[in-house]
Amino acid sequence: MTATATLERPRVNSPAPFAPRPRPVKAAHLIRSDAEAIEIAHRLAARFAPESALRDREGFLPIDEIDAYSQSGLWGINVPKAYGGPGVSYATLAEVVAIISAADSSIAQISQNHFVLVAHVGLDASEAQKQELFGLVLQGHRFGNAFSELNSRNVAAFETKVVVHGDEVEVNGQKFYTTGALLSHIVPIVAVNEAGKGYIVFADRDTPGLTVINDWSGFGQRTTASGSVKIERVRVPQSRVVPIDAFDHPSAAGPISQIIQAAIDAGIARGALADSIDFIRSKSRPWIDSGKETAGEDPFTIAAIGDLQIRLHAAEALLERAGRLVDAALANATEATVAAATVGTAEAKVLTTQVAIEVTNRLFELAGTRSALTVHNLDRHWRNARIHTLHDPVRWKFFHIGNYYLNGVNPPRHPWN
Fold first, then answer.
1. C-alpha distances out from residue 386 to 69, 105, 254, 382, Å
2. Residue 113: how many CB atoms within 10 A of its CB?
């Protein structure tokens, strides 16, 4: 790649206007099985990994990568079979996300809200809305996200308003942490009416009054472009307005959101541990007191890698278990099955958070001083883990898990559980 070509690539946190991405000219590939989804994820990960450090360092938006990702069919894998999708297990979906995240966690996070919104369509939309929105997903259309508020008192306090005007609704508000919106085809907006009832308004990315701003400046997950959205008198047909009812009764909505979060963290840990091992084998020097010829023969390094690998495998096992519990809750949503899925996913989230932080921190201790050189950009793993694991506090996971097992109290139902 030439220096000129490098400079011309669109970057995150840029004041330059960023036009909506073209809609797909051909339908995305239709994945037929869980095994095919895993195989395609590995193939894409091999493509995404080589420039992951470069994209992070330079802030390059993963435009071609996201196009390839959604056209591969992976963005449609949780569309139910009854609507033409593969309807894979959520254990498979979690593994797909972890595979992509190990290669580039920013790319994995860009798809995160899309998968959640596809699930919400299945849980809350009308039959006609399911036919339309699932159909768009299978064609390769990407959902973004305009969920979190910029100035509200907490994550569940929504100030963006929706008002009915005949066959349309008008939406006004401002959003932040809008991961996926910049590169999406449709921006689902969470808004409330005068009574405080919540809705998801599926607005086309190029709708007048909808402005996606490329102003994400986090020190990690840099190329997610998780900036802000202005919503000024945005008009959308009522047929694109889906009520948020999934948390008013037992449903798998919460654990579905959480299992994707956990999968991204598991992938960060997986990628960082692989880079640690590779660096120790190829570049690190043995410590003088070890008496060994290579860093990989250091007994303390060997033991530490073993410990980290065990922790990662434990987190991955809980992640797979959580996926099966989500599947069970989807098949038969009761207080018991949903609580089991919520707690099981929380357990996975605790371990994936812990191992992501631990692996990305110990990388430098084990690989040595030269691993801190900017040319390697290995610090991106820690930065990504630290940023992404802030999504919801693990300290509350311990409480809800303990309260469930000790006192028989089911955790609250919301997107952060």
1. 25, 12, 22, 6
2. 26
Domain that holds residue 208: 161-243
- The pTM of the full predicted model, rounded to 2 decimals, is 0.96
The token pair at 132 is: 């339309």
Q: Which helix (H) or strand (E) holds 313?
A: helix 299-331
Beta bridge partners of 171: 162, 234
Number of residues that make up the chain: 417
| CB 144, CB 181: distance < 8 Å | yes
Domain boundary among 215, 243, 271: 243
Ordered DSSP codes for 384-403: HHHHHTTSS-HHHHHHHHHH
- Same domain? For 74 and 174 the reply is no
Q: Look at residue 145 and tell me if it is in a domain.
A: no
- Helices 105-124 and 127-139 pack at an angle, to 10 degrees, of 160
Domain count of the fold of the chain: 3
Whether pLDDT at 256 is above 50: yes
- Statement to judge: residues 395 and 266 lie in one domain: yes
Distance of CA 119 to the CA centre of its chain: 14
* C-alpha to C-alpha distance for 255 and 115, rounded to whole angstroms: 12
Specify the DSSP element, H or E, that contains 83: none
**Could you report the per-residue pLDDT of 362-405, keeping only the tens digit for each?**
999 999 999 999 999 999 999 999 999 999 999 999 999 999 99
